[in-house]
Specification:
Number of helices: 13
Distance between the termini: 16 Å
Structural class: alpha/beta
CATH topology of the largest domain: Quinone Oxidoreductase, Chain A, domain 1
Number of strands: 15
Strand content: 15-25%
CATH class of the largest domain: Alpha Beta
Number of domains: 2
Radius of gyration: 20 Å
CATH superfamily of the largest domain: Medium-chain alcohol dehydrogenases, catalytic domain
Order of helices and strands: EHEEHEHEEEHHEHEHEHEHEHEHHEHE
Helix content: 25-40%
Length: 334
């Protein structure tokens, strides 16, 4: 079968290659899935650059999520208990990466049967962005109705989901972007306030928006100076989740800000959070995501899809500024 492989870390458009690799064997408690599509996520690109939380053994293939059809079921009762059988369409959750290939073997509990009314384009991005967008404000921070949530990288696919979640659940969002043209777009989506860092100070604008109280909650995907500004804009006792490092630099923590304001900063990685949850909690989360997808809250905009052979073009477009939606890899020859 064919797979997108890299044997050194670096620019994804330079190091990725399409190779013929052996068909993976199916062990007990596992399933083999014929992949249909997989998105190009920032986490995938960070792993290829060697900058992700987990560093893979080279050569490696990435791809943390996707959609496919069960091909073979390994021995053991778990697959049957989960309703998995050959021909069943599933969301493919691959915590170690590896979905950018024509077939993949994963633990049975990471193959999630999905309803027929959800299209492949949505199921392909069923987990990473929707679950992260939902879990951070609702399960970890537990943002109440009427409270302010400050988020960086608000123009991303995940950031747009958080805005729609705010409208759905009644919390208010302050959305930080870099480009002016994103302001009206995010306001039209339902963002309560938008801050453009090209023109404005995050701290000053948050103070004005919240009448000097600050935001009690924040999520940061950028790091660096932007992350520090978000931390400073928190209200006393505020909490910030750090779930990315798009700037390439960590948040330079200011001890005085933390101590005087009794503020808390916590890291968040979806796969680590998921490991701490029961199977029942995860199944209920998946059902909730499905309902919110149908309601138009956790939908993913798709800009373009590329066959696996055009992987380098796909990753270039995924990193292009001003992109309007997710880039998908088609792994079924379509």
């Amino acid at each position: 079968m064919k797979a997108a492989v890299f044997d050194r870390f670096g620019d994804p458009a330079e190091v990725l290659q399409i190779r013929d690799v052996p068909l993976p064997e199916v062990g007990p408690g596992k399933v083999r899935v014929r992949m249909t599509a997989s998105p190009v996520n920032p986490s995938d690109l960070l792993m290829i650059r060697g900058k992700y939380a987990r560093i893979p053994t080279l050569p490696a293939t990435v791809g943390f999520e996707g959609v496919g059809v069960v091909d073979t079921v390994g021995r053991g009762p778990l697959a049957r208990m989960l309703g998995l059988f050959p021909g069943r369409r599933v969301a493919v959750l691959n915590e170690r990466g590896g979905n950018w290939q024509e077939q993949v073997v994963i633990p049975a509990r990471q193959a999630i049967p999905v309803p027929a009314d959800l299209p492949d384009e949505q199921v392909a991005s069923f987990f990473v962005n929707p679950a992260t967008a939902l879990v951070m404000p609702r399960y970890v921070l537990k943002v109440p109705r009427g409270a302010w949530l400050l988020q960086t990288a608000a123009g991303s696919a995940l950031g747009r989901m958080v805005i729609r979640l705010g409208r759905h659940y009644g919390f208010r969002t302050i959305n930080v972007v870099r480009r002016r043209e994103q302001i009206k777009e995010l306001e039209s989506l339902g963002g309560d306030a938008v801050i453009c860092t090209a023109d404005e100070s995050i701290e000053e604008r948050v103070a004005a928006i919240t009448r000097d109280t600050g935001a009690l909650f924040a999520i940061d995907a950028v790091g660096g100076a932007t992350g520090l500004s978000a931390l400073r804009a928190l209200a006393p006792g505020g909490r910030m989740l750090v779930y990315g490092i798009l700037a390439g630099d960590p948040v330079p923590l200011d001890n005085a800000v933390l101590v005087m304001g009794q503020k808390a900063v916590q890291g968040f990685l979806l796969s680590e959070w998921a490991h701490q949850q029961s199977v029942l909690t995860m199944l209920l989360l998946f059902r909730r995501i499905g309902r919110l997808m149908r309601a138009g809250v956790l939908t993913t905009e798709v800009e373009a899809a590329f066959p696996l052979e055009r992987i380098r073009e796909a990753v270039r477009q995924a990193e292009a500024p001003g992109r309007k939606g997710k880039i998908l890899l088609r792994l079924d020859g379509a």
